[in-house]
Hints:
The complex is a heterodimer of chains A (230) and B (365). Chain A is mostly helical and 230 residues long.
Amino acid sequence: MTVFKFVFKRYFRDLPNVIFLLLLPIVAAFLPIGGTPEWIPLPLGFQYYGIILLLIAARLAGVILEDRINKTVLRIGVAPMTHLQYLWQNLLAFSLILMGVNVVVMIIGLLVHGNTLISPILLFIIFSIFSMTSIGFALAWYSLFRDKETAFSLLGGVIMLMVMLGGVMWPIQIMPQLLQRFAMLLPTYWLMEGIIVVVRGGNFVDLILPLSLLLMFSIAFIILGSRRRL
Amino acid sequence: MIKDWNIWTPENSKILCRSIGLFLLCLLWLTGQGSEVGIVLLLFLIIMALIRWRFPLPGWVILLDQVACMIVIPFWPYSIFALALALFEGSLVGKPWYALPAVVFLFYSGASIPLIATFLQAGFTGWIIRGWTKETSLYRHEADQQRRQRYELENLKSELLLANVQGIQMAELAERNRIAQELHDDVGHEITAAVLAFQAFEQLWRDKDPFAEEMFLQAQKRLTNSAKQLRETVYNMKPVQAIGIDRLKDISNRMDGYPLEFSVYGDTSSVPVYLWSILEPCLKEALTNVIRHAEATKIMINLDVSPYIVRLSVYNDGIRQKEPKVEYGVGLRNLRQRARAVGGNISIDASDGFRLICVLPLEKH
Protein backbone atom coordinates (compact mmCIF):
# COMPACT_ATOMS: atom_id res chain seq x y z
CA MET A 1 0.00 0.00 0.00
CA THR A 2 2.95 2.34 -0.51
CA VAL A 3 1.37 4.07 -3.47
CA PHE A 4 -1.84 4.47 -1.49
CA LYS A 5 -0.01 6.13 1.40
CA PHE A 6 2.04 8.33 -0.88
CA VAL A 7 -1.02 9.76 -2.59
CA PHE A 8 -2.00 11.29 0.77
CA LYS A 9 1.53 12.40 1.56
CA ARG A 10 2.06 14.03 -1.78
CA TYR A 11 -1.31 15.65 -1.96
CA PHE A 12 -1.45 17.11 1.53
CA ARG A 13 2.17 18.26 1.52
CA ASP A 14 1.10 21.04 -0.80
CA LEU A 15 -0.81 23.79 1.06
CA PRO A 16 -2.70 25.11 -2.01
CA ASN A 17 -3.98 21.59 -2.59
CA VAL A 18 -5.39 21.38 0.94
CA ILE A 19 -7.03 24.80 0.65
CA PHE A 20 -8.45 23.87 -2.74
CA LEU A 21 -9.70 20.56 -1.40
CA LEU A 22 -11.38 21.85 1.74
CA LEU A 23 -12.10 25.55 1.30
CA LEU A 24 -14.11 25.29 -1.89
CA PRO A 25 -16.56 22.59 -0.73
CA ILE A 26 -16.93 24.04 2.75
CA VAL A 27 -17.65 27.53 1.46
CA ALA A 28 -20.06 25.98 -0.99
CA ALA A 29 -21.82 24.18 1.82
CA PHE A 30 -22.59 27.53 3.48
CA LEU A 31 -24.16 29.07 0.36
CA PRO A 32 -27.90 29.81 0.78
CA ILE A 33 -30.76 28.74 -1.43
CA GLY A 34 -30.78 30.96 -4.44
CA GLY A 35 -31.44 31.30 -8.12
CA THR A 36 -34.22 28.97 -9.09
CA PRO A 37 -35.83 27.31 -6.08
CA GLU A 38 -38.85 26.38 -8.21
CA TRP A 39 -36.49 24.18 -10.25
CA ILE A 40 -34.20 22.76 -7.59
CA PRO A 41 -35.04 23.92 -4.05
CA LEU A 42 -31.58 23.05 -2.76
CA PRO A 43 -28.87 25.37 -1.41
CA LEU A 44 -26.74 26.65 -4.29
CA GLY A 45 -23.66 24.86 -3.02
CA PHE A 46 -25.38 21.52 -3.36
CA GLN A 47 -26.80 22.29 -6.76
CA TYR A 48 -23.32 23.10 -8.05
CA TYR A 49 -21.53 20.50 -5.95
CA GLY A 50 -21.01 18.37 -9.06
CA ILE A 51 -18.74 21.03 -10.55
CA ILE A 52 -16.67 21.12 -7.38
CA LEU A 53 -16.38 17.33 -7.40
CA LEU A 54 -15.23 17.33 -11.03
CA LEU A 55 -12.63 20.00 -10.31
CA ILE A 56 -11.29 18.29 -7.19
CA ALA A 57 -11.11 14.96 -9.00
CA ALA A 58 -9.20 16.64 -11.82
CA ARG A 59 -6.76 18.05 -9.30
CA LEU A 60 -6.39 14.68 -7.55
CA ALA A 61 -5.92 12.60 -10.67
CA GLY A 62 -3.27 15.06 -11.79
CA VAL A 63 -0.99 12.97 -9.57
CA ILE A 64 -1.13 10.22 -12.17
CA LEU A 65 -0.27 12.60 -14.98
CA GLU A 66 2.63 13.97 -12.95
CA ASP A 67 3.85 10.43 -12.34
CA ARG A 68 3.86 9.83 -16.05
CA ILE A 69 5.63 13.07 -16.91
CA ASN A 70 8.26 12.63 -14.15
CA LYS A 71 8.83 9.05 -15.35
CA THR A 72 7.73 7.73 -11.95
CA VAL A 73 5.49 5.25 -13.74
CA LEU A 74 8.54 4.01 -15.59
CA ARG A 75 10.40 3.43 -12.34
CA ILE A 76 7.38 1.77 -10.78
CA GLY A 77 7.22 -0.39 -13.88
CA VAL A 78 10.56 -1.97 -13.04
CA ALA A 79 9.58 -2.44 -9.39
CA PRO A 80 7.80 -5.65 -8.40
CA MET A 81 4.40 -4.01 -8.75
CA THR A 82 1.81 -4.43 -11.47
CA HIS A 83 0.17 -1.49 -13.15
CA LEU A 84 -3.14 -2.73 -11.79
CA GLN A 85 -1.88 -2.40 -8.22
CA TYR A 86 -0.57 1.07 -8.90
CA LEU A 87 -3.86 2.07 -10.44
CA TRP A 88 -6.25 0.71 -7.85
CA GLN A 89 -4.23 2.06 -4.93
CA ASN A 90 -4.32 5.49 -6.53
CA LEU A 91 -8.01 5.26 -7.30
CA LEU A 92 -8.80 4.03 -3.80
CA ALA A 93 -6.92 6.92 -2.28
CA PHE A 94 -8.63 9.44 -4.54
CA SER A 95 -12.08 8.09 -3.82
CA LEU A 96 -11.41 7.97 -0.06
CA ILE A 97 -10.37 11.63 -0.12
CA LEU A 98 -13.45 12.59 -2.08
CA MET A 99 -15.68 10.51 0.24
CA GLY A 100 -14.20 12.35 3.20
CA VAL A 101 -14.96 15.68 1.57
CA ASN A 102 -18.49 14.51 0.82
CA VAL A 103 -19.05 13.50 4.45
CA VAL A 104 -17.72 16.83 5.74
CA VAL A 105 -19.86 18.82 3.31
CA MET A 106 -22.97 16.82 4.15
CA ILE A 107 -22.48 17.31 7.88
CA ILE A 108 -21.92 21.06 7.43
CA GLY A 109 -24.92 21.20 5.11
CA LEU A 110 -27.09 19.46 7.70
CA LEU A 111 -25.91 21.83 10.43
CA VAL A 112 -26.37 24.98 8.35
CA HIS A 113 -29.43 24.22 6.27
CA GLY A 114 -31.14 21.54 8.29
CA ASN A 115 -34.22 20.20 6.59
CA THR A 116 -33.73 22.00 3.29
CA LEU A 117 -31.51 19.10 2.26
CA ILE A 118 -34.45 16.90 1.47
CA SER A 119 -32.70 13.54 1.88
CA PRO A 120 -29.05 13.87 2.91
CA ILE A 121 -28.41 10.12 2.70
CA LEU A 122 -29.60 9.79 -0.89
CA LEU A 123 -27.73 12.96 -1.87
CA PHE A 124 -24.61 11.55 -0.26
CA ILE A 125 -24.98 8.33 -2.26
CA ILE A 126 -25.43 10.24 -5.50
CA PHE A 127 -22.45 12.49 -4.83
CA SER A 128 -20.28 9.56 -3.80
CA ILE A 129 -21.00 7.67 -7.00
CA PHE A 130 -20.51 10.84 -9.00
CA SER A 131 -17.12 11.24 -7.28
CA MET A 132 -16.07 7.92 -8.85
CA THR A 133 -17.30 9.09 -12.23
CA SER A 134 -15.34 12.34 -11.87
CA ILE A 135 -12.18 10.47 -10.94
CA GLY A 136 -12.66 8.11 -13.87
CA PHE A 137 -13.28 11.02 -16.20
CA ALA A 138 -10.14 12.84 -15.06
CA LEU A 139 -8.14 9.60 -15.39
CA ALA A 140 -9.40 8.98 -18.92
CA TRP A 141 -8.78 12.61 -19.83
CA TYR A 142 -5.20 12.58 -18.59
CA SER A 143 -4.46 9.34 -20.43
CA LEU A 144 -4.90 11.29 -23.68
CA PHE A 145 -2.24 13.90 -22.92
CA ARG A 146 1.49 14.09 -22.44
CA ASP A 147 1.65 17.75 -21.57
CA LYS A 148 0.43 18.86 -18.17
CA GLU A 149 -0.45 22.46 -19.05
CA THR A 150 -2.50 21.48 -22.09
CA ALA A 151 -4.32 18.77 -20.18
CA PHE A 152 -5.18 21.06 -17.25
CA SER A 153 -6.32 24.04 -19.27
CA LEU A 154 -8.40 22.00 -21.69
CA LEU A 155 -9.90 19.97 -18.87
CA GLY A 156 -11.27 23.13 -17.22
CA GLY A 157 -13.06 24.06 -20.42
CA VAL A 158 -14.37 20.56 -20.99
CA ILE A 159 -15.72 20.35 -17.43
CA MET A 160 -17.57 23.64 -17.81
CA LEU A 161 -18.98 22.49 -21.13
CA MET A 162 -20.13 19.20 -19.65
CA VAL A 163 -21.69 21.01 -16.73
CA MET A 164 -23.56 23.45 -18.94
CA LEU A 165 -24.76 20.84 -21.39
CA GLY A 166 -25.63 18.43 -18.61
CA GLY A 167 -28.08 20.88 -17.07
CA VAL A 168 -26.30 21.65 -13.83
CA MET A 169 -26.48 25.41 -14.31
CA TRP A 170 -29.94 25.66 -15.78
CA PRO A 171 -32.86 23.33 -16.46
CA ILE A 172 -32.20 21.16 -19.45
CA GLN A 173 -35.68 21.77 -20.80
CA ILE A 174 -34.76 25.26 -21.99
CA MET A 175 -32.26 23.82 -24.46
CA PRO A 176 -33.07 22.60 -28.01
CA GLN A 177 -34.44 19.09 -28.43
CA LEU A 178 -31.27 17.64 -29.99
CA LEU A 179 -29.05 19.08 -27.25
CA GLN A 180 -31.41 17.67 -24.65
CA ARG A 181 -30.92 14.21 -26.08
CA PHE A 182 -27.19 14.77 -26.44
CA ALA A 183 -26.99 15.80 -22.79
CA MET A 184 -28.23 12.34 -21.84
CA LEU A 185 -24.89 10.96 -23.09
CA LEU A 186 -23.07 13.00 -20.43
CA PRO A 187 -22.59 11.88 -16.82
CA THR A 188 -23.52 15.33 -15.50
CA TYR A 189 -27.05 14.91 -16.84
CA TRP A 190 -27.50 11.78 -14.78
CA LEU A 191 -26.17 13.53 -11.69
CA MET A 192 -28.81 16.23 -12.05
CA GLU A 193 -31.40 13.59 -12.89
CA GLY A 194 -30.59 11.90 -9.59
CA ILE A 195 -30.72 15.18 -7.67
CA ILE A 196 -34.05 16.07 -9.24
CA VAL A 197 -35.43 12.65 -8.31
CA VAL A 198 -34.38 13.26 -4.70
CA VAL A 199 -35.81 16.78 -4.70
CA ARG A 200 -39.14 15.48 -5.95
CA GLY A 201 -39.25 13.04 -3.07
CA GLY A 202 -38.22 9.88 -4.91
CA ASN A 203 -36.80 6.90 -3.02
CA PHE A 204 -33.77 4.70 -3.71
CA VAL A 205 -35.58 2.56 -6.29
CA ASP A 206 -36.23 5.65 -8.44
CA LEU A 207 -32.53 6.39 -8.27
CA ILE A 208 -31.44 3.04 -9.71
CA LEU A 209 -31.34 4.17 -13.34
CA PRO A 210 -29.28 7.35 -12.82
CA LEU A 211 -26.97 5.65 -10.35
CA SER A 212 -26.35 2.64 -12.54
CA LEU A 213 -25.67 4.91 -15.51
CA LEU A 214 -23.20 6.91 -13.43
CA LEU A 215 -21.52 3.67 -12.41
CA MET A 216 -21.33 2.53 -16.03
CA PHE A 217 -19.80 5.85 -16.97
CA SER A 218 -17.19 5.38 -14.23
CA ILE A 219 -16.35 1.87 -15.45
CA ALA A 220 -16.02 3.04 -19.04
CA PHE A 221 -13.84 5.99 -18.07
CA ILE A 222 -11.63 3.92 -15.78
CA ILE A 223 -11.08 1.25 -18.43
CA LEU A 224 -10.26 3.98 -20.94
CA GLY A 225 -7.79 5.57 -18.55
CA SER A 226 -6.29 2.33 -17.27
CA ARG A 227 -3.89 1.92 -20.15
CA ARG A 228 -0.31 2.30 -19.06
CA ARG A 229 1.40 5.01 -21.01
CA LEU A 230 5.05 5.51 -20.26
CA MET B 1 9.83 6.29 -35.34
CA ILE B 2 6.19 5.99 -36.25
CA LYS B 3 5.80 6.16 -39.99
CA ASP B 4 2.59 7.10 -41.75
CA TRP B 5 1.66 3.60 -42.73
CA ASN B 6 2.50 2.29 -39.27
CA ILE B 7 -0.70 3.81 -37.93
CA TRP B 8 -2.80 1.55 -40.15
CA THR B 9 -2.32 -1.63 -38.21
CA PRO B 10 -5.04 -4.25 -37.82
CA GLU B 11 -5.24 -3.31 -34.13
CA ASN B 12 -5.98 0.32 -34.91
CA SER B 13 -8.46 -0.65 -37.58
CA LYS B 14 -10.36 -2.72 -35.05
CA ILE B 15 -10.55 0.26 -32.71
CA LEU B 16 -11.59 2.50 -35.58
CA CYS B 17 -14.35 0.13 -36.74
CA ARG B 18 -15.72 -0.26 -33.23
CA SER B 19 -15.64 3.49 -32.67
CA ILE B 20 -17.42 4.17 -35.95
CA GLY B 21 -20.04 1.54 -35.15
CA LEU B 22 -20.69 2.96 -31.69
CA PHE B 23 -20.68 6.52 -32.99
CA LEU B 24 -23.30 5.64 -35.59
CA LEU B 25 -25.39 3.94 -32.93
CA CYS B 26 -25.16 7.08 -30.77
CA LEU B 27 -26.27 9.18 -33.73
CA LEU B 28 -29.14 6.78 -34.31
CA TRP B 29 -30.19 7.18 -30.73
CA LEU B 30 -29.80 10.97 -30.79
CA THR B 31 -31.95 11.42 -33.86
CA GLY B 32 -34.51 8.79 -32.91
CA GLN B 33 -37.07 8.71 -30.16
CA GLY B 34 -35.63 5.88 -28.08
CA SER B 35 -36.04 5.87 -24.34
CA GLU B 36 -33.32 6.28 -21.75
CA VAL B 37 -32.78 2.53 -21.72
CA GLY B 38 -30.99 3.04 -25.03
CA ILE B 39 -28.23 4.88 -23.19
CA VAL B 40 -27.79 1.90 -20.90
CA LEU B 41 -27.26 -0.27 -23.96
CA LEU B 42 -24.90 2.25 -25.55
CA LEU B 43 -22.84 2.51 -22.39
CA PHE B 44 -22.81 -1.26 -22.04
CA LEU B 45 -21.57 -1.66 -25.61
CA ILE B 46 -18.96 1.06 -25.10
CA ILE B 47 -17.73 -0.70 -21.96
CA MET B 48 -17.55 -4.01 -23.83
CA ALA B 49 -15.61 -2.39 -26.66
CA LEU B 50 -13.20 -0.84 -24.17
CA ILE B 51 -12.72 -4.18 -22.41
CA ARG B 52 -12.06 -5.85 -25.77
CA TRP B 53 -9.50 -3.17 -26.48
CA ARG B 54 -7.71 -3.70 -23.17
CA PHE B 55 -8.00 -7.46 -22.66
CA PRO B 56 -8.48 -10.46 -24.93
CA LEU B 57 -11.97 -11.82 -24.32
CA PRO B 58 -13.25 -15.33 -25.12
CA GLY B 59 -15.62 -15.65 -28.05
CA TRP B 60 -18.75 -16.50 -26.09
CA VAL B 61 -18.82 -13.01 -24.53
CA ILE B 62 -20.38 -11.93 -27.85
CA LEU B 63 -23.50 -13.75 -26.68
CA LEU B 64 -23.75 -11.32 -23.74
CA ASP B 65 -23.74 -8.35 -26.13
CA GLN B 66 -26.53 -9.92 -28.12
CA VAL B 67 -28.62 -10.67 -25.04
CA ALA B 68 -28.26 -7.04 -23.95
CA CYS B 69 -29.30 -5.80 -27.38
CA MET B 70 -32.33 -8.09 -27.50
CA ILE B 71 -33.45 -7.01 -24.05
CA VAL B 72 -33.36 -3.36 -25.10
CA ILE B 73 -35.12 -3.85 -28.46
CA PRO B 74 -38.62 -3.47 -26.98
CA PHE B 75 -37.65 -0.08 -25.51
CA TRP B 76 -35.59 1.13 -28.46
CA PRO B 77 -36.29 -0.74 -31.72
CA TYR B 78 -33.21 0.61 -33.46
CA SER B 79 -30.98 -1.32 -31.10
CA ILE B 80 -31.32 -4.19 -33.57
CA PHE B 81 -28.56 -2.39 -35.47
CA ALA B 82 -26.32 -2.97 -32.45
CA LEU B 83 -26.49 -6.68 -33.26
CA ALA B 84 -24.33 -5.93 -36.31
CA LEU B 85 -21.52 -5.10 -33.88
CA ALA B 86 -21.84 -8.63 -32.48
CA LEU B 87 -21.53 -10.03 -36.00
CA PHE B 88 -18.44 -7.88 -36.52
CA GLU B 89 -16.86 -9.19 -33.32
CA GLY B 90 -17.83 -12.76 -34.20
CA SER B 91 -16.16 -12.73 -37.59
CA LEU B 92 -13.23 -10.84 -36.08
CA VAL B 93 -12.43 -13.73 -33.74
CA GLY B 94 -13.15 -16.20 -36.53
CA LYS B 95 -16.19 -17.67 -34.78
CA PRO B 96 -19.15 -16.23 -36.66
CA TRP B 97 -21.47 -18.87 -35.21
CA TYR B 98 -21.43 -16.96 -31.93
CA ALA B 99 -23.35 -14.25 -33.80
CA LEU B 100 -25.90 -16.78 -35.00
CA PRO B 101 -28.61 -15.63 -32.53
CA ALA B 102 -28.32 -12.13 -34.00
CA VAL B 103 -28.76 -13.40 -37.56
CA VAL B 104 -31.68 -15.66 -36.60
CA PHE B 105 -33.28 -12.75 -34.74
CA LEU B 106 -32.72 -10.51 -37.75
CA PHE B 107 -34.72 -12.74 -40.10
CA TYR B 108 -37.27 -13.61 -37.46
CA SER B 109 -38.09 -9.95 -36.87
CA GLY B 110 -38.46 -9.26 -40.59
CA ALA B 111 -35.25 -7.82 -41.95
CA SER B 112 -35.19 -4.64 -43.99
CA ILE B 113 -32.64 -4.11 -46.76
CA PRO B 114 -30.59 -1.44 -44.86
CA LEU B 115 -30.45 -3.75 -41.88
CA ILE B 116 -29.20 -6.69 -43.95
CA ALA B 117 -26.68 -4.40 -45.66
CA THR B 118 -25.40 -3.23 -42.27
CA PHE B 119 -25.05 -6.81 -41.09
CA LEU B 120 -23.24 -7.93 -44.24
CA GLN B 121 -20.97 -4.91 -44.07
CA ALA B 122 -20.13 -5.55 -40.41
CA GLY B 123 -19.46 -9.24 -40.93
CA PHE B 124 -17.38 -8.62 -44.02
CA THR B 125 -15.30 -5.91 -42.34
CA GLY B 126 -14.62 -8.15 -39.39
CA TRP B 127 -13.63 -10.99 -41.68
CA ILE B 128 -11.23 -8.79 -43.66
CA ILE B 129 -9.58 -7.40 -40.55
CA ARG B 130 -9.20 -10.93 -39.26
CA GLY B 131 -7.47 -11.97 -42.47
CA TRP B 132 -5.28 -8.91 -42.31
CA THR B 133 -4.31 -9.66 -38.70
CA LYS B 134 -3.44 -13.25 -39.51
CA GLU B 135 -1.41 -12.32 -42.55
CA THR B 136 0.49 -9.60 -40.74
CA SER B 137 1.39 -11.90 -37.89
CA LEU B 138 2.39 -14.62 -40.35
CA TYR B 139 4.73 -12.32 -42.26
CA ARG B 140 6.12 -10.88 -39.08
CA HIS B 141 6.80 -14.40 -37.83
CA GLU B 142 8.49 -15.32 -41.08
CA ALA B 143 10.60 -12.18 -41.10
CA ASP B 144 11.65 -12.86 -37.53
CA GLN B 145 12.57 -16.40 -38.39
CA GLN B 146 14.62 -15.36 -41.38
CA ARG B 147 16.37 -12.69 -39.41
CA ARG B 148 17.24 -15.22 -36.73
CA GLN B 149 18.55 -17.67 -39.30
CA ARG B 150 20.66 -14.96 -40.87
CA TYR B 151 22.17 -14.07 -37.52
CA GLU B 152 22.88 -17.72 -36.85
CA LEU B 153 24.57 -18.07 -40.21
CA GLU B 154 26.67 -15.01 -39.61
CA ASN B 155 27.66 -16.33 -36.21
CA LEU B 156 28.55 -19.66 -37.72
CA LYS B 157 30.61 -17.97 -40.38
CA SER B 158 32.66 -15.93 -37.95
CA GLU B 159 33.15 -18.99 -35.78
CA LEU B 160 34.36 -20.95 -38.80
CA LEU B 161 36.75 -18.19 -39.71
CA LEU B 162 38.09 -18.15 -36.20
CA ALA B 163 38.40 -21.93 -36.26
CA ASN B 164 40.27 -21.61 -39.55
CA VAL B 165 42.84 -19.30 -38.02
CA GLN B 166 43.17 -21.54 -35.01
CA GLY B 167 43.50 -24.59 -37.24
CA ILE B 168 46.34 -23.00 -39.14
CA GLN B 169 48.07 -22.08 -35.92
CA MET B 170 47.58 -25.62 -34.62
CA ALA B 171 48.95 -27.06 -37.86
CA GLU B 172 51.99 -24.85 -37.53
CA LEU B 173 52.56 -26.02 -33.99
CA ALA B 174 52.07 -29.65 -34.98
CA GLU B 175 54.54 -29.27 -37.83
CA ARG B 176 57.09 -27.64 -35.56
CA ASN B 177 56.57 -30.47 -33.13
CA ARG B 178 57.13 -33.05 -35.86
CA ILE B 179 60.34 -31.40 -36.99
CA ALA B 180 61.62 -31.19 -33.46
CA GLN B 181 60.77 -34.83 -32.88
CA GLU B 182 62.44 -36.00 -36.06
CA LEU B 183 65.55 -33.94 -35.38
CA HIS B 184 65.69 -35.31 -31.87
CA ASP B 185 64.83 -38.92 -32.59
CA ASP B 186 66.88 -39.59 -35.74
CA VAL B 187 69.43 -36.92 -36.47
CA GLY B 188 70.14 -36.13 -32.83
CA HIS B 189 70.77 -39.75 -31.86
CA GLU B 190 72.99 -40.40 -34.84
CA ILE B 191 75.09 -37.29 -34.17
CA THR B 192 75.39 -38.14 -30.49
CA ALA B 193 76.47 -41.65 -31.42
CA ALA B 194 78.98 -40.21 -33.90
CA VAL B 195 80.37 -37.83 -31.26
CA LEU B 196 80.76 -40.75 -28.83
CA ALA B 197 82.41 -42.83 -31.58
CA PHE B 198 84.86 -40.02 -32.34
CA GLN B 199 85.77 -39.71 -28.66
CA ALA B 200 86.39 -43.48 -28.57
CA PHE B 201 88.38 -43.24 -31.80
CA GLU B 202 90.57 -40.45 -30.35
CA GLN B 203 91.43 -42.64 -27.36
CA LEU B 204 92.11 -45.71 -29.50
CA TRP B 205 94.13 -43.69 -32.00
CA ARG B 206 96.42 -42.33 -29.22
CA ASP B 207 96.90 -45.86 -27.93
CA LYS B 208 97.60 -46.97 -31.53
CA ASP B 209 94.94 -49.59 -31.17
CA PRO B 210 94.10 -51.56 -34.36
CA PHE B 211 90.35 -50.97 -33.64
CA ALA B 212 90.80 -47.25 -34.27
CA GLU B 213 90.28 -47.42 -37.97
CA GLU B 214 87.09 -49.43 -37.64
CA MET B 215 85.79 -46.95 -35.05
CA PHE B 216 86.57 -44.06 -37.40
CA LEU B 217 84.66 -45.69 -40.25
CA GLN B 218 81.72 -46.31 -37.97
CA ALA B 219 81.63 -42.68 -36.81
CA GLN B 220 81.91 -41.48 -40.38
CA LYS B 221 79.03 -43.71 -41.41
CA ARG B 222 76.89 -42.31 -38.61
CA LEU B 223 77.69 -38.74 -39.64
CA THR B 224 76.81 -39.52 -43.26
CA ASN B 225 73.53 -41.06 -42.06
CA SER B 226 72.60 -38.06 -39.98
CA ALA B 227 73.47 -35.67 -42.79
CA LYS B 228 71.15 -37.64 -45.05
CA GLN B 229 68.37 -37.64 -42.47
CA LEU B 230 68.80 -33.94 -41.90
CA ARG B 231 68.43 -33.35 -45.61
CA GLU B 232 65.28 -35.48 -45.72
CA THR B 233 63.71 -33.64 -42.82
CA VAL B 234 64.40 -30.32 -44.47
CA TYR B 235 62.99 -31.53 -47.78
CA ASN B 236 59.83 -32.69 -46.00
CA MET B 237 59.44 -29.23 -44.56
CA LYS B 238 59.71 -27.34 -47.77
CA PRO B 239 56.37 -26.92 -49.55
CA VAL B 240 56.00 -27.55 -53.25
CA GLN B 241 53.98 -24.38 -53.87
CA ALA B 242 55.46 -21.00 -53.21
CA ILE B 243 54.10 -19.26 -50.15
CA GLY B 244 54.39 -15.87 -48.60
CA ILE B 245 55.89 -13.01 -50.50
CA ASP B 246 56.86 -15.28 -53.42
CA ARG B 247 53.22 -16.17 -53.92
CA LEU B 248 52.18 -12.51 -53.99
CA LYS B 249 54.85 -11.78 -56.55
CA ASP B 250 53.69 -14.76 -58.59
CA ILE B 251 50.16 -13.40 -58.66
CA SER B 252 51.21 -9.91 -59.63
CA ASN B 253 53.51 -11.22 -62.37
CA ARG B 254 50.51 -12.78 -64.05
CA MET B 255 49.09 -9.32 -64.74
CA ASP B 256 50.56 -9.07 -68.19
CA GLY B 257 49.94 -5.87 -70.08
CA TYR B 258 49.49 -3.73 -67.00
CA PRO B 259 52.32 -1.50 -65.81
CA LEU B 260 52.72 -2.76 -62.30
CA GLU B 261 54.91 -1.68 -59.41
CA PHE B 262 55.39 -4.05 -56.51
CA SER B 263 57.26 -2.74 -53.52
CA VAL B 264 57.88 -4.49 -50.25
CA TYR B 265 59.08 -2.87 -47.06
CA GLY B 266 59.98 -4.67 -43.88
CA ASP B 267 60.66 -8.25 -42.90
CA THR B 268 58.09 -10.45 -44.59
CA SER B 269 59.31 -13.57 -42.82
CA SER B 270 57.66 -12.44 -39.61
CA VAL B 271 54.20 -12.64 -41.21
CA PRO B 272 52.49 -15.89 -40.13
CA VAL B 273 50.90 -18.24 -42.63
CA TYR B 274 47.31 -17.46 -41.73
CA LEU B 275 47.84 -13.80 -42.60
CA TRP B 276 49.27 -14.72 -45.98
CA SER B 277 46.09 -16.71 -46.55
CA ILE B 278 44.18 -13.43 -46.26
CA LEU B 279 46.62 -11.17 -48.05
CA GLU B 280 46.71 -13.47 -51.04
CA PRO B 281 42.96 -13.49 -51.86
CA CYS B 282 42.94 -9.80 -51.10
CA LEU B 283 45.48 -9.08 -53.76
CA LYS B 284 43.70 -11.44 -56.14
CA GLU B 285 40.38 -9.70 -55.53
CA ALA B 286 41.89 -6.26 -56.08
CA LEU B 287 43.59 -7.28 -59.31
CA THR B 288 40.47 -9.04 -60.57
CA ASN B 289 38.55 -5.86 -59.95
CA VAL B 290 41.12 -3.93 -61.94
CA ILE B 291 40.70 -6.27 -64.89
CA ARG B 292 36.95 -6.31 -64.61
CA HIS B 293 36.05 -2.70 -63.95
CA ALA B 294 38.86 -0.24 -64.37
CA GLU B 295 40.86 0.88 -67.35
CA ALA B 296 44.00 1.28 -65.38
CA THR B 297 47.25 2.69 -66.69
CA LYS B 298 49.16 2.12 -63.51
CA ILE B 299 48.89 -0.36 -60.68
CA MET B 300 50.84 0.11 -57.46
CA ILE B 301 51.09 -2.63 -54.89
CA ASN B 302 52.68 -1.85 -51.55
CA LEU B 303 53.28 -4.31 -48.80
CA ASP B 304 54.52 -2.78 -45.53
CA VAL B 305 55.46 -5.01 -42.67
CA SER B 306 56.02 -3.14 -39.44
CA PRO B 307 56.65 -4.80 -36.08
CA TYR B 308 52.91 -4.60 -35.28
CA ILE B 309 50.93 -4.60 -38.51
CA VAL B 310 50.97 -5.74 -42.12
CA ARG B 311 49.50 -3.27 -44.58
CA LEU B 312 48.73 -4.22 -48.14
CA SER B 313 47.67 -1.41 -50.43
CA VAL B 314 46.62 -1.94 -54.03
CA TYR B 315 46.11 1.21 -56.04
CA ASN B 316 45.04 1.71 -59.63
CA ASP B 317 44.33 4.99 -61.39
CA GLY B 318 41.50 3.62 -63.49
CA ILE B 319 38.07 5.20 -63.64
CA ARG B 320 35.18 3.18 -62.40
CA GLN B 321 32.83 3.03 -65.33
CA LYS B 322 29.53 2.44 -63.63
CA GLU B 323 28.03 3.42 -60.27
CA PRO B 324 29.92 6.28 -58.69
CA LYS B 325 28.91 4.92 -55.31
CA VAL B 326 31.41 2.49 -53.86
CA GLU B 327 29.91 -0.66 -52.49
CA TYR B 328 31.32 -3.76 -50.98
CA GLY B 329 30.64 -6.69 -53.25
CA VAL B 330 30.28 -10.25 -52.04
CA GLY B 331 33.99 -10.98 -52.47
CA LEU B 332 35.09 -7.89 -50.58
CA ARG B 333 32.52 -8.46 -47.87
CA ASN B 334 33.75 -11.99 -47.29
CA LEU B 335 37.36 -10.83 -47.26
CA ARG B 336 36.47 -8.11 -44.83
CA GLN B 337 34.88 -10.62 -42.52
CA ARG B 338 37.94 -12.85 -42.73
CA ALA B 339 40.16 -9.89 -41.97
CA ARG B 340 37.99 -9.01 -39.01
CA ALA B 341 38.23 -12.54 -37.72
CA VAL B 342 41.98 -12.02 -37.22
CA GLY B 343 41.49 -8.51 -35.84
CA GLY B 344 42.23 -6.53 -39.00
CA ASN B 345 40.15 -4.62 -41.51
CA ILE B 346 39.79 -3.92 -45.21
CA SER B 347 38.79 -0.53 -46.53
CA ILE B 348 38.36 0.88 -50.00
CA ASP B 349 38.60 4.39 -51.29
CA ALA B 350 37.46 5.47 -54.74
CA SER B 351 37.93 9.23 -54.50
CA ASP B 352 40.95 9.19 -56.81
CA GLY B 353 41.35 6.04 -58.80
CA PHE B 354 40.67 3.04 -56.64
CA ARG B 355 42.57 1.96 -53.59
CA LEU B 356 42.12 -1.14 -51.49
CA ILE B 357 43.88 -1.25 -48.17
CA CYS B 358 44.11 -4.30 -46.00
CA VAL B 359 45.55 -3.89 -42.52
CA LEU B 360 46.19 -6.93 -40.36
CA PRO B 361 47.72 -7.00 -36.89
CA LEU B 362 50.79 -9.10 -36.19
CA GLU B 363 50.68 -11.11 -33.03
CA LYS B 364 53.62 -10.63 -30.74
CA HIS B 365 55.19 -13.92 -29.84
